[in-house]
């Protein structure tokens, strides 16, 4: 078999036992393993199991004798790419089986690379969007907001000079109130564009303020629960976690007919977990997947970009819980 494959241009190493195969694979990585079901010191499936427990799985093809077809099928379920029978046509079929298997491996590698590149591009696009929002928010706060504030001060000064002209003073007073409302709206817009800063505790502070603003609307009671201080070192992840919470709260306020919304943030050594729950009407059966609407799809996308897992739990008449879990690096 080895000589046949070498003749077809492949570089081939052989091992007569499972132990020898493990030692060889520890020294270098192979593109494909051609594995006999019966080895000198064990069986092929047991070797596959051990290899997976110790290191990354090696793509493999099974070689099986007559009467072992059932075992071969079981090993295929373990991840074998193909199998070839020990018969008179073995050496003729083997190169084609290997080519087919290596082609499948190359396809999987290319697919993983494409998926990683897609995630990288998605992350970059979202990062560009966040930077633009930060830039616009800073312009609103630092430029437009400051100019409106200066106009309000000028209006107040002119109003003092217009005391002898009551109609003019009244109009100036109205102008001052309108300017103050415009300043408040500008700050609100700037805050929405830049929800969290770059400090490690910015997410905790931002979620607390989100709960306060939502509660102040008067439509639902909203509280923030954070038993212990939570620090998020990466502003990119903190921003997306905040947006997920914001979307979940908006859904609860607009659609859930809830009276109570709770934003909960917890952190352990292994993970950070954000949870938004409400006591609303819940979702109809079968509506807890991404088909629910754009809002959940966006939350799913944001969580995947930062490497988090998003889950939704809903019972009809018992509210909805959105849970985002982010594994933490040691």
Provide structural commentary.
It is a single chain. This protein is an alpha/beta fold. The protein contains nine helices and ten strands. It has a five-stranded mixed sheet, covered by helices on one side. It has a three-stranded parallel sheet with strand order 1-4-5, sandwiched between helices. The chain is elongated and about 115 Å long. The model is unreliable at 288-292 (pLDDT under 50).
Topology:
Layout (H helix, E strand, L loop, with lengths): L1 H6 L10 H10 L5 E4 L1 E2 L2 E2 H11 L5 E5 L4 H9 L4 E4 L4 H72 L4 H28 L8 H15 L4 E5 L9 H21 L4 E8 L3 E8 L15 H12 L3 E6 L5 E8 L3
Parallel strand pairs: 1-4, 4-5, 6-7
Antiparallel strand pairs: 2-3, 7-8, 8-10, 9-10
Helix pairs in contact: 5-6, 7-8, 8-9
Keywords, separated by commas or semicolons:
alpha/beta, 5-stranded mixed beta sheet, Heat Shock Protein 90, Rossmann fold, 3-stranded parallel beta sheet, 330 residues
Would you kindly provide a brief summary of this structure?
Helices cover 56% and strands 16% of the residues. It is built from nine helices and ten strands.
């Amino acid at each position: 078999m080895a000589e046949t494959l070498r003749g077809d241009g492949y570089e081939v190493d052989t091992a007569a036992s499972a132990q020898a195969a493990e030692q060889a694979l520890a020294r270098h990585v192979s593109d494909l393993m051609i594995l006999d079901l019966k080895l000198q010191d064990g069986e092929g499936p047991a070797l596959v199991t051990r290899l997976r427990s110790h290191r990354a799985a090696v793509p493999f093809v099974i070689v099986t004798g007559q009467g072992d077809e059932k075992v071969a099928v079981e090993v295929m379920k373990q991840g074998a790419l193909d199998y070839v029978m020990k018969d008179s046509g073995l050496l003729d079929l083997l190169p084609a089986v290997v080519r087919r298997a290596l082609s499948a491996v190359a396809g999987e590698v290319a697919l993983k690379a494409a998926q990683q590149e897609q995630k990288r591009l998605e992350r970059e696009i979202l990062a560009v969007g966040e930077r633009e929002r930060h830039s616009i928010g800073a312009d609103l706060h630092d430029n437009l907001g400051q100019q409106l504030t200066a106009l309000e001060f000028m209006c107040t000064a002119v109003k003092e000079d217009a005391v002898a002209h009551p109609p003019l003073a009244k109009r100036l007073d109205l102008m001052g109130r309108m300017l103050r409302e415009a300043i408040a709206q500008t700050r609100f817009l700037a805050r929405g564009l830049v929800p969290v800063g770059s400090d490690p505790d910015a997410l905790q502070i931002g979620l607390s303020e989100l709960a306060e603003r939502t509660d102040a609307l008067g439509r639902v009671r909203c509280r923030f629960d954070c038993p212990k201080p939570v620090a998020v070192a990466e502003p990119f992840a903190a921003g997306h976690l905040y947006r997920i919470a914001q979307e979940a709260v908006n859904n609860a306020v607009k659609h859930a007919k809830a009276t109570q919304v709770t934003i909960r943030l917890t952190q352990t050594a292994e993970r950070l977990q954000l949870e938004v729950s409400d006591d609303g009407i819940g979702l109809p059966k079968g509506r807890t997947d991404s088909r629910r609407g754009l809002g959940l799809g966006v939350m799913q996308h944001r969580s995947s970009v930062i490497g988090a897992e998003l889950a939704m739990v809903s019972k009809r008449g018992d509210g909805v819980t959105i849970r985002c879990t982010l594994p933490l690096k040691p």
